[in-house]
Amino acid sequence: DARPSEHLARQPHPDGRGAERRRRQQHQAHPVVPPARERDDGAAEEHAGAERDLVREASTLRAVRPLLPVPVPDLEVHRIGGQLISLHAKIPGEPLSHLAGLTIGARKTLAADLAAFLQALHSVPIDCLEAGPAEAPSSEWHRLLAQCEDVAFPLLSPDVVTGLRKRFSNFLATCDALPQCLIHGDFGTGNI
Fold it and tell me: Which residues lie closer than 8 Å to 58 by C-beta, 6 or more apart?
């Protein structure tokens, strides 16, 4: 019996153009970082940060490829006409957009496969990566807290808000010292 992920990889696309579609999608280019504009509103800093993130992603994928139990794209980064793009060969198969065609047993096997992948990813030693994190972990949590202050907290009772702020404060005081692990970042069905 083939694993569900192998079964899905062999299935033709529902539109009947599976082979033709796979040939067209054998390579995929993504314009990721648009050219920087001549403005003084922080756009140049954001542009430089997006470029750094793309180069870091390519480096990270290169480092984890031999350590994971699933195919990992070989992301190439190129500058074309002032625009940074990423290019990678498509991984064989079709994205998992629904589970309707899978039996209960196949779904359980798929879940076990996905759990094994995530466990392997989270076990990758951070020190094997060329580039460290772009920012302290607390930075992202501070941004989440700011969003909560703006959007959610005005809708909640004062007692609940006080409790949430205290929990955030306690967590933020220690989160940068907690062990770090690599996460996928976009573990949606289109990437499975």
Answer: 75, 76, 77, 86
